[in-house]
Amino acid sequence: MKANEFTNEAEKPAAKKTAAKKVSKKLKAGDFTPHDYNPGWQELNFLKEVAKDNGDRMAGELQLFVPRVAATVNTKSERIKSLFDRPSAWDDEGNLNPEFQDWVDQGAIGESARPILHAGKAVSPPGRNKPVANLWTSTAQKRGDGSYTSDWSRYTESLSKLKWFSDVGYLFRIKPGALILELDNDRDAERVFRTFNDLGKFDAYEKYSFDTEMAMRAQFPWDEVAKHFDAVTHSGPRYGDTFMYGWDVESTAWFDTRFLEYLGPVKVAKTSSTTDDEY
Asked: Could you tell me the residue ranges of all domains in the chain?
């Protein structure tokens, strides 16, 4: 064997090891700690790839936040106290950041108080069929008069929800790079549930006598979803679904609001012809 042939042969195992290492990392969904192969990692990587495609597709879209008009803390001093343990509310000199100052001064999330974009990811406890998110939005649709509407704002014009309607909303643009998980029906939710169950994050089925619906409502892994994804989006109502019941309109729950660019307040259009007096 010639010297150059020997060198080529000697390099091949190293190349194979490098390729194997790359595949191994791909299967671990960003977790590079040594562990045995589990099909849950492969499924989680697939969900992340789809979520990346969703983020790419939604990048640049306008989102509308229409808050319910409801005071959250009664007095100004109580509102200030509630922010003491939230570092993102304060600047380096100990002053409240502008959006938090708005909330302290006005006291209501709605009408004229702009939404607070929390720093870092939301902490969403497991269980129930909806996550805890830093912000919920719905796709914004601009009307000819310059006002905006969305599936959510139209929904709040319904008979039982008119008290939630606000004629001022807040506009955002989605930035590139977000991992946005899509949950459109019970099948989507069950796929996510089984993925994290396979990864050993909880042992749901045996505890709830293999009743998937009950197990999902009790232990749906929103905590893990929030760690791995930046948002969860839903394209619209799914009548007849059990676990997804209550996801009434097209909406997106944001765990990480770094992927939202705040554009400012806008007028929210009232699209129905029914007046407030009729409700």
From this structure: 31-70+118-278, 73-106
